[in-house]
Design goal:
The protein is an alpha+beta fold. It contains six helices and seven strands. Helix 3 runs antiparallel to helix 4.
Length: 201
């Protein structure tokens, strides 16, 4: 229950704003546009304490959650439109132009983060390489999609050509080359286009 002996601020149940409760008033003079209220010294001190207390902090806006339902393609389209409009109607040296570009870059970042991971897995190739002591660099060999074949080539090279003509051992190594695939945000097909293609024929 609300303490009626101390100043309080409560929401107005009948409309906007709040209700300020002031106990122990010594004077009241109300007008249509204002109200004069007299307080005791103790009441004024309590009111100052109440008003000096930190306001209730509103929870921060979760921007990620706000845009969670927006498709990546839509975010990218808005970014492209914003950049095009900035070039068309703003001076490149203006602050507004820079701000629009910043917003467009942020939209692209969110689109990239929200975009689903591509289903195409990385591909691998293996090769046996040897070091050229004259050029001081590694010379690539034939690439194999099957690691076992690359290992066979590597072991055969060690067996049949373990050293150079001067007796210096040949440095060899087995390497794996990995290729990953990422569709760039600007060229990501629209969801509608992919769905339409799936039903056409």
């Amino acid at each position: 229950m609300t303490d009626q002996t101390a100043p309080t601020i409560t929401p107005n149940p009948d409309g906007d704003g709040v209700i300020l409760h002031l106990p122990e008033i010594t004077h009241v003079d109300t007008q249509v546009w204002s109200a004069d209220v007299g307080l005791t010294a103790e009441g004024l001190a309590a009111l100052r304490t109440l008003l000096g207390a930190p306001a209730v902090q509103q929870p921060p806006v979760d921007r990620a959650a706000t845009f969670a339902s927006v498709r990546p393609h839509t975010l990218s389209s808005i970014a492209r439109h914003l950049e095009a409009r900035a070039v068309a109607i703003l001076r490149p040296e203006s602050q507004t132009y820079a701000e629009w570009q910043t917003v467009a870059a942020e939209l692209r970042r969110m689109a990239d983060e929200a975009r689903p991971v591509e289903h195409q897995p990385p591909s691998h190739r293996w090769a046996a390489e040897f070091r050229d002591p004259v050029a001081d660099e590694w010379i690539p060999g034939t690439r194999f999609l099957n690691r076992h074949h690359a290992v066979q080539r590597y072991e055969a090279a060690i067996q049949h050509a373990p050293a150079w003509k001067d007796g210096t051992p040949v440095e060899r190594r087995l390497v794996r080359e990995t290729t990953t695939y990422t569709v760039e945000a600007e060229h990501q097909p629209a969801d509608e286009a992919r769905q339409g293609g799936a039903h056409s024929g």
